[in-house]
Amino acid sequence: MSAQSDKKQITLSSLKKMKEQGKKFTCLTSYESTLTSIICDAGVDVVLVGDSLGMVIQGHDSTLPVTMDQLVYHLECVVKGNKGAHIMADMPFMSYATDDMGLENAKRLMQAGANSIKIEGGEWISKMASMLADRGIPVCAHIGLTPQAINRIGGNFVQGRNPEKHELIINEAKSLEEAGASLLLLECVPDALTKLIMNEISIPVIGIGAGSSTDGQIMVVHDLLGISCLDKLPKFVKNFMEDSSSIQEALANYVKDVKSGNFPAEEHTFY
Ligand code: KIV
Description:
Elements: H1 12-20, E1 25-29, H2 33-41, E2 46-49, H3 53-56, H4 68-81, E3 86-90, H5 99-111, E4 116-120, H6 126-134, E5 139-144, H7 150-153, H8 163-179, E6 183-187, H9 191-200, E7 205-208, E8 216-219, H10 221-224, H11 247-260
Parallel strand pairs: 1-2, 1-8, 2-3, 3-4, 4-5, 5-6, 6-7, 7-8
Residues 29, 48, 50-52, 90, 185, 208, 218, 220 line the site of 3-methyl-2-oxobutanoic acid.
């Protein structure tokens, strides 16, 4: 049973409505109950139980070692602290490698309390997005930089800088919307590409390192709180603790800055 509050439940319809009204929405990762509760108090709309937990919780150097059992465990913790945010859960590496695995593992996440699931990849995940959507499971399709494919990509590089990749990402976005994805997450792409995608599709788009024109923004909560263990932070990260005297204030400032369009600023954007 999740923590009760008088706060309204954020649904996919709420996110779509915010998009229609030109209001930005906020997303943050969380992996445990207490922080989720504080994140909700700050007014964050979407909490992602991300496979970034492989890095920030487990200390690995990629998301690849995260298992379904671990994701479900952290999701259950987050659900207990939730006060009305939309909970999205990542499908970990290889958990949707086949149709059957994807259906079974998405079922586990939804039964553990997720409101939507997120899968990474390009056009090849269209079929999975469509199968899950047909069965009532809202899908967020994560494109651009897809950390589960880090070994193929070769590093955390900005995606879509050359004309072929640019075109490919636009087509991926369109085909994933057509396949039935409810949300799109764009990671590490140039601002101009994000703007083109925003003109082409109508589902809400969440960005990380994708400029300020997306409908929502997401950050890894550890990065926001300035407790990253990376030697060099990605350009799109802002440490909100620098100008705040408490975690609560940092979270509130993140919400305020995203909603007002002050974050991400030019210095966090790839051109
Ligand atoms: O796992 C994660 O935290 C993510 C975000 C970086 C978008 O996928």
